[in-house]
Amino acid sequence: MQARISMITLGVRNLDAAIRFYGEGLGFPRLESPPEVAFFNLNGTWLGLFGYEALAEDARVPGRGSGFRGFSLAHNVHSEAEVEAVMAKAQAAGATITKPAQTVFWGGYSGYFQDPEGYLWEIAHNPFMWVGPVD
After folding, report:
1. Distance (Å, rounded) from C-alpha 2 to C-alpha 42?
2. Residue 133: how many CA atoms within 13 Å on its side-chain side?
């Protein structure tokens, strides 16, 4: 059976700035990509960045909308200290902290930031779930 990979693609208004944020700011490893798109390896999935209007056109949907987009992306890490470190790294790279990292109702530790394009990311430590490679 051939290996499969899931991909999350974000439509971005400023591709160069988004590439800098995810590549240089957060340190995501960039894969070889054509100039109109950027791919980053996220250990089991890929993050794709594509022009906002181009992605809307490709999906044949209107390219308008703002505010809460109805979803968030999550990045799970190994410890509370790592949550704090990723949040600080994101903020230094230009993210806006929307919810500082804190103990949450389900027993874990998490916080939220918005990337420069407004996408919400939750950075979380779940002490009840393994964070690592899945066989």
Report:
1. 19
2. 1
pLDDT digit string (tens) for the chain, length 135 residues: 455 666 888 989 899 999 999 999 999 999 998 888 999 998 888 888 888 888 777 666 677 765 566 667 888 899 999 999 999 999 999 999 999 999 988 899 999 998 998 888 889 998 987 766 655
Is this prediction's pTM over 0.90? no
Domains of the chain: 6-59 (3.10.180.10), 73-125 (3.10.180.10)
Where do the H-state alpha helices sit in the chain? 15-19, 52-59, 80-92
Q: For tokens 């949907």, what's the residue?
A: 61
